[in-house]
Write a structure and sequence with these properties.
- By secondary structure, the chain is an all-alpha fold.
- The chain has one domain.
- The radius of gyration is 18 Å and the shape is globular.
- 42% of the residues are buried.
- The model has no long low-confidence stretch (mean pLDDT 85).
Length: 251
């Protein structure tokens, strides 16, 4: 059983969120690449295949792209805290490793949800997509929370092993680009070549992307319950790995 102190979880969460909100340049600059994909790629493909409404199909994938980048790079704060000595103070505090990891996961997930929401609002304006029902919006944010949480857990796991920012960033780029481009974020599964469809089916981020797409545009491929089930299972596995590796990290 995990031993959690919710007041300490809140304190760690608040620190991560404040650090993010105080960096306005980071917030603005993180919008650039997802919007470029949505407007340039989405607009170009929509012109080539107007019957598909590609830009609308693409929007959930671009939201997921924003969540993916923000979540995985949230782990770099562990390396910075280690370099500045703050991590030693955190580990010396009367808080379990599960408490520290959960606080960081929720903090990173919150920042990713803020970033994803900004992309979603701009995307709805660009595509003219009608808003889904309140129930669908709630479920969509729950799915985004699960996705961002397991991605932050993955970032924490890597940062717990890697000692330098210079090493962490290329490793994350090596993970992020194949993870996103070999998912269903950009193309429908039924339109993919057989080999790519097989990879996408086993890609962990394909299921939360599909869930968001189902709830936002009703164009999903898998049953919604499968999207949630797989995503929750991945979260449980990656959070456990992140907690284990973080408990063994060097300071």
């Amino acid at each position: 059983m995990f031993n959690l102190d919710l007041s300490k979880v809140y304190a760690i969460w608040l620190r991560e969120v404040k650090r993010y909100l105080n960096s306005k340049a980071r917030i603005v600059s993180s919008l650039g690449q997802p919007l470029l994909f949505l407007i340039a790629l989405g607009g170009g493909m929509s012109a080539l295949a107007p019957e598909m409404h590609y830009q609308t199909f693409l929007l959930p994938g671009i939201v997921a792209m924003s969540v993916l980048f923000t979540s995985l790079f949230a782990g770099v704060s562990i390396i910075w805290d280690r370099d500045f000595g703050f991590l030693k103070e955190v580990l010396a505090a009367p808080a379990t490793r599960e408490t520290i990891v959960l606080g960081r996961v929720l903090g990173g997930a919150t920042t990713a949800l803020i970033q994803g929401t900004l992309i979603l609002i701009i995307g709805i304006i660009v595509t003219g997509l009608p808003l889904p029902s309140i129930e669908s919006i709630i479920l969509m944010y729950l799915m985004m929370l699960i996705m961002s949480s397991f991605l932050v857990s993955a970032g924490i796991a890597v940062a717990s092993v890697v000692q330098e920012v210079e090493t962490f960033q290329p490793i994350m780029n090596f993970i992020i680009m194949p993870l996103f481009f070999l998912s269903n974020g950009l193309f429908p599964l039924e339109k993919m070549p057989e080999w790519m469809r097989a990879i996408s089916t086993f890609n962990p981020i394909s299921y939360p992307i599909d869930g968001v797409r189902t709830l936002l545009t009703a164009q999903g491929h898998f049953p919604l319950i499968l999207d949630f089930g797989v995503s929750i299972l991945i979260l449980a596995v990656l959070f456990s790995i992140a907690t284990y590796l973080f408990s063994r990290t060097n300071i």
